[in-house]
Design a protein that fits this description.
The chain is α/β, with parallel strands linked by helices. The protein has 13 helices and twelve strands. A seven-stranded mixed sheet has the order 2-8-7-6-5-3-4, sandwiched between helices. β5, α6 and β6 form a beta-alpha-beta unit. α1 packs antiparallel against α9.
């Protein structure tokens, strides 16, 4: 059976060039980077190269890149440790985020609330944008941190990061952004944007899983995250994930070299996909802003059906899609992102996220539209609701 993967926001396959660069570090170049002999120093050099590659992708200094196990760890480190540091220095205990963040951030906020922190969760407009006037109005004398994601993992909306950073700087507040979805999909220059902290992940840009990074702008204070050794400039102890770091570095280099072509290709495929859906299937709605959106993202509500039933039918045809964030796919709770932008609960349950990537073809899209149309027709025929009856 034909297999078509349309969930690149959940994870990406490791590119062959990345795998080939990683393989020697499992075997003959396996040395501990902290060791002083040659094989250890070769590993240390490989990590330095990877750090330089990732820094080049986002316009940073290599010394501002700190490797983690994931984007989730980077989010936790940035938000929780910044909040605690500022509180302990008597700066305040108030942080600001949004209702549409990834759960790595939302759950970090909940954890801080249990410690006595005050967290403001900003709403967004119908397209998923933060209202800048509301953000600025929410800042208080005791506000120490603003954390707003670069681009949403479900609806693809790209936030006005430079403007948010400007507001934060104006009020002397540290600004963190989760760029896990944005990295490798849009052009990023951290210094031009003015962000203080930024989270990233390797497996979203055709690198391996189990490796992430946190950008920490020079001059921004952030306590050590793990203790035990001098790794990551004394901020994150533990023997480095050598193969993961090497793979992340190679993936970053490929992303930088191919960025323009990648954006053009996946944008064209996404637009073609949407056109075909609109021509073949009625009663749909596009969730999120379409102009300021990740190039490969489509989040569509198919009215009068259940999204999970549609997902399963497509899976039977070898098509992999998502009803939302992969990190919360086991939950039956309606998408907090779609709820935040005002999608009615019954329509949230009929929503599917499609994301195309570097290995998607136009032929894949044609096949998916054919199977998608048949699946929607089938589900609407057996549904207990219709246009006439409503939900």
């Amino acid at each position: 059976m034909r297999q078509i993967y349309l969930d690149y926001s959940a994870t990406t396959p490791v590119k062959d060039e990345v795998l080939q660069e990683m393989l020697p570090y499992f075997t003959e170049r396996f040395g501990n980077p902290s060791s002083l002999y040659t094989v250890g120093q070769e590993s240390k050099t490989a990590i330095s190269t990877a750090r330089e590659r990732l820094a080049a992708l986002i316009g940073a200094d290599p010394k501002e890149i700190f490797f983690t196990s994931s984007g989730t760890e980077a989010d936790n480190w940035a938000v929780i440790e910044t909040a605690r540091l500022k509180r302990d220095k008597g700066k305040g205990n108030h942080i600001i985020t949004t209702k549409i963040e990834h759960h790595a951030l939302l759950h970090s906020g909940e954890a801080l609330e249990k410690e006595g922190f005050d967290v403001t969760y900003l709403g967004v407009d119908a397209e998923g944008f933060v209202r800048l006037s509301e953000l600025e109005a929410a800042i208080r004398p005791e506000t120490t941190l603003i954390s707003i994601m670069f681009a949403n993992n479900e609806i693809g909306t790209i936030e006005p990061i430079a403007q948010i950073a400007e507001i934060a700087k104006k009020h002397g507040v540290v600004f963190h952004t989760d760029a896990v979805q944005a990295l490798g999909n849009i052009d990023i220059d951290v210094h031009a944007l003015g962000v203080d902290l930024m989270s990233m992940s390797g497996h979203k840009i055709y690198g391996p899983k189990g490796i992430g990074a946190l950008y920490i702008r020079k001059g921004v204070a952030l306590p050590a995250h793990l203790y035990g050794g001098a790794q990551e400039n004394n901020k994150r102890a533990g023997t480095e994930n050598l193969t993961g770091i090497v793979g992340f570095g190679k993936a970053a280099a490929l992303a930088k070299a191919n960025l323009r072509n990648h954006i053009q290709k996946v944008s064209d495929l996404r637009n073609y996909f949407l056109e075909q859906i609109q021509e073949n299937i009625e009663d749909i709605r596009i969730n999120g802003n379409f102009e300021h959106r990740l190039p490969g993202n489509l989040n569509i509500t198919f009215k009068y059906i259940e999204g999970e039933a549609l997902l399963l039918l497509l899976d039977m045809d070898g098509i992999a899609v998502s009803t939302g964030s992969a990190c919360s796919s086991a939950s039956l709770t309606p998408s907090h992102v779609l709820d935040a932008i005002g999608v009615p609960v019954e329509e949230i349950h009929g929503s599917i996220r499609f994301t195309v990537g570097d290995f998607t073809t136009k032929e894949d899209i044609d096949y998916v539209v054919e199977k998608l149309k048949a699946a929607v027709i089938k589900l609407r025929r057996i549904s207990s609701v219709s246009k006439e009856s409503g939900w």
